[in-house]
Amino acid sequence: MIGIVDYNMGNLASVINAFKKVGAEAKLESNPSNLQQYDKLILPGVGAFGDAMEHLKSNGMDKAVKEFAASGKPLMGICLGMQLLFEGSEEFGNTVGLGLIPGKVVAFEESKFDHPLKVPHMGWNELFVQKETPIFDGLPKEFYLYFVHSYHAVCEDKYAIGKTHYGYEFVSAVQKGNIYGIQPHPEKSHDNGLKIIENFAKL
Fold this sequence. Notes:
CATH architecture: 3-Layer(aba) Sandwich
CATH superfamily: Class I glutamine amidotransferase (GATase) domain
Shape: globular
CATH topology: Rossmann fold
Number of domains: 1
Radius of gyration: 16 Å
């Protein structure tokens, strides 16, 4: 069974529907005590990093997610959920994250853009696969996914399994062992996104 962490930060119906479309059963879970019952876990998220961490901490869900990650079972963060996996974010000051992957989350630096672009980064863009990984099985080396974000992760290349170009190159997908993160929204990315969802369900 796949658990989807429900902490009042994100459009969870579309994530559940994506799993249904690939024939996998996923269930919303808001009780931290129940997380260990699941075989796999999705950490979704839309909104501000600080608000998300407050929601997770309010009932001990942050500790429960860390314990799940330590169990070795597959965990995937989506969009803001991916950002929460890192040590911290500079969004609205500095906020400590879950610390499951070394690195931090920073705002797009528009001064570094190779040509003027709007922030947030919104719409379809290419993900360039950096390493072979089970969640990209059956997908080409570069493919389009749907993005909506103003902040992005900065980490060592050894954790980067996908990169994307928006003004400059940034890390758009990560993996550290059993822990995965993807910045775009696979549940809004049609066939390519559904393939990632399906691959995760098969882990």
